[in-house]
């Protein structure tokens, strides 16, 4: 049963990002990382279910692949930068977190615009 046909990678990303979110929440609670690890956890745990939904939507949402890719990259940039700042004392690269955040916003807007368009026949 090919439920995830072309979007299987998005389900894999969702699982990894969700697991990272839980791990980051635990680290924030037990290792004193509230300022950086808690928001990184929140972003991961908010976008993992969205990625699962996009994986399951398949071709029912015209831009599901592109939105899922944007959400995956945006989450990795945003959360990854916060985690790097916490553990390494420096970010991934200048403006990584804002770039990730803008990528996430753009992905959600792309999804909204696509959903508002008439479906293909």
Structure characterization notes:
- The protein has 121 residues and is mainly alpha-helical.
- It contains 4 helices and no strands.
- Helix 1 packs antiparallel against helix 2 (34-57).
- The longest helix has 25 residues, at 64-88.
- The protein starts with 7 loop residues before the first helix and ends in a 5-residue tail after the last helix.
Number of helices: 4
C-alpha Rg (nearest Å): 15 Å
Largest sheet: none
* Count of individual domains: 1
Question: N-to-C SSE series?
Answer: HHHH
The global form is elongated
Q: What distance lies between the first and last C-alpha atoms, to the nearest angstrom?
A: 23 Å
Mean pLDDT: 90
**Proportion of residues in helical segments:** over 70%
Structural class comes to mainly alpha
Taking pLDDT < 50 over at least 5 consecutive residues as the criterion, the unreliable ranges are none
Based on DSSP secondary structure assignment, what is the total number of beta strands? Answer: 0
Strand content: under 5%
Protein name: DUF423 domain-containing protein
InterPro entries: DUF423
Organism: Rhizobium rhizophilum
Pfam families: DUF423
Give the topology:
Elements: H1 8-30, H2 34-57, H3 64-88, H4 96-116
Helix pairs in contact: 1-2, 1-3, 2-3, 3-4
Quick recap of the structure?
It comes from Rhizobium rhizophilum. This protein has 121 residues and is mostly helical.
């Amino acid at each position: 049963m090919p439920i995830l046909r072309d979007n299987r990678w998005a389900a894999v990303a969702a699982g990894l990002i969700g697991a990272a979110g839980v791990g980051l929440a635990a680290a924030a609670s037990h290792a004193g990382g509230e300022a950086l690890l808690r928001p990184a956890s929140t972003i991961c745990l908010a976008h993992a279910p969205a990625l699962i939904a996009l994986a399951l939507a398949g071709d029912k949402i015209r831009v599901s692949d592109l939105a899922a890719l944007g959400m995956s990259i945006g989450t990795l940039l945003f959360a990854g930068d916060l985690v790097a700042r916490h553990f390494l004392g420096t970010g991934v690269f200048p403006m990584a977190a804002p770039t990730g955040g803008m990528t996430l916003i753009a992905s959600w807007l792309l999804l909204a615009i696509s959903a508002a368009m008439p479906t293909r026949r």
